[in-house]
Specification:
3 strands; 3-stranded parallel beta sheet; about 260 residues; about 5% strand
Length: about 260
């Protein structure tokens, strides 16, 4: 906090120039990208980010968190803040606001915003809210019971939000082990496996274990998805399955795109 503003500005400019090639690559690369599946951010995506940021406790916890964060910057007239504390508050505010705002701005060129990617802002939100709680606790007009009540409400709503999140979390019940063992027991020379719409890591994991259990029998080759993954098309499927007498179709979450699944079948 004792570094002159001019020095900070020059360091920021230098850093921006050093990372510019990487940023341009991410923004301008077309197709084949690991984030090509991201949609354009909507109000629903921003709402989901705010809920994740404040503990999934609903609108009450959301308003409470931001109110406490704003209260962190309130300074009673009789209290003077040292430079270190003012600098720390400004740093936390930038930590909270810059990542989502810059990512949303870049999403005009290419979608980059995703609520889970913004989880790095959670510590800044919690630190500001905690500072606001201590402010509320020490304000003469609020008295201490207000700070205690706000703290209890934050804890209660956060616990409820965490419980609701895991209660509604989609359970993974795909039995990869049985599916792979079924293929290993019935495979024929020259078989191939077409996996839709999951990656091949789970198949290969259980195939390695199954091969040892079945006396070293080699699992059928994975024809799709290739690595890196390419979009599904009729020509793609024809090329991937060419020269195979028989192909195993292994489905996972296949109901998300019925038209694409119909083309594969």
């Amino acid at each position: 906090y004792r570094v002159p503003a001019r020095t900070i500005l020059w360091v920021a400019i230098l850093f921006e120039h050093l990372v510019a090639p990487m940023a341009l690559f991410v923004l301008l690369q077309q197709g084949g990208s690991q984030i090509s599946w991201l949609p354009r951010p909507s109000l629903s995506d921003i709402s989901q980010f705010l809920a994740l940021l404040t503990g999934q406790g609903g609108i009450v916890l959301l308003v409470l968190y931001f109110s406490l964060a704003a209260l962190a910057f309130v300074r009673p007239d009789e209290v003077s803040h040292p430079d270190a504390e003012r600098w720390a508050l400004r740093l936390r505010l930038l930590w909270l606001l810059l990542p989502p705002l810059l990512t949303l701005a870049a999403s005009v060129i290419k979608p980059l915003f995703f609520s889970t990617y913004m989880v790095l802002c959670v510590p800044a939100m919690v630190l500001l809210a905690a500072r606001g709680l201590t402010r509320l606790y020490s304000l003469p007009v609020a008295r201490r019971w207000a700070g205690v009540a706000a703290f209890a409400l934050v804890v209660a709503l956060s616990a409820w939000g965490t419980r609701q999140y895991f209660a509604n979390f989609a359970a993974e019940d795909t039995d990869w082990r049985s599916a792979v063992n079924y293929i290993l027991e019935r495979q024929q020379p020259g078989d191939g496996v077409f996996i839709y719409s999951a990656h091949a890591l789970c198949y290969r994991y259980y195939a390695q274990h199954g091969e040892r259990q079945h006396g070293g029998a080699t699992a059928p080759d994975v024809l799709y998805p290739p690595d890196p993954r390419r979009p599904v098309s009729h020509d793609e499927i024809t090329a991937d399955t060419a020269g195979r007498e028989r192909v195993w179709l292994l489905l996972h979450d296949e109901n998300k795109k019925p038209a694409e699944l119909a083309g594969i079948e």
